[in-house]
Structures are given as structure tokens and as C-alpha cells.
Amino acid sequence: MLPNAQTEAENQITVDIINTAFMGNITEVQGVIKRNDEEKKLRLQLTKCPNLSDKLSFTVPRHAIKFLESVK
């Protein structure tokens, strides 16, 4: 499913990376997203990404991400 042009801003996520950890084929990313003047911390597990910069941007289908637990 590709992003709808009307909701593309909703589907575009940019993460300011705070920390990364490498565990075999998994890269764990801890970062912050800013939405509607609000900051939220998040943790992602990605398939082997050794060369990340200080920002990570990606697009996902609407409602594809569920925040299941608080990250402190």
C-alpha cells in the first residue's frame, strides 16, 4: 500500500536518532519524533543498518505503526 497524496505528511516519519545498538542482524534505534509541536520517544528494531546518520526518515501506510509501550 502506497501513501495517499492527501495524507503523505501523516505517513512521513523523521526520527532524530539518540542512540543505536547492534545485535547481530538487528539494529536497535532509540530516538525522538516531533509531531504537532509534541516530542515522543521511540525505539525501532531494523534489519542491519550500520551506517545511520543522526536522522532517519521513512514512509509507512496510514495506521501501520501502533505504539504498544511507553519508552523512557
Fold and architecture overview:
- There is one protein chain.
- The protein is mainly β.
- It has a single domain (5-59), classed as OB fold (Dihydrolipoamide Acetyltransferase, E2P) (Beta Barrel), CATH 2.40.50.
- It is built from one helix and four strands; from the N terminus they run H-E-E-E-E.
- It has one helix at residues 8-11; strands at residues 12-23, 26-35, 38-47, 55-59.
- It has a four-stranded antiparallel β-sheet.
User: How would a crystallographer describe the biggest sheet?
Assistant: 4 strands, antiparallel
User: Number of DSSP strands?
Assistant: 4
Order of helices and strands: HEEEE
Average pLDDT value? 79
Radius of gyration based on Cα positions: 13 Å
In DSSP terms (H or I, runs of 4 or more residues), the helix count works out at 1
The fraction of residues in strands falls at: over 45%
For the termini, the CA-CA separation is 32 Å
Query: Main sheet: which strands, in order across?
Result: 3-2-1-4
CATH class: Mainly Beta
CATH architecture classification: Beta Barrel
CATH topology: OB fold (Dihydrolipoamide Acetyltransferase, E2P)
List low-confidence stretches: none
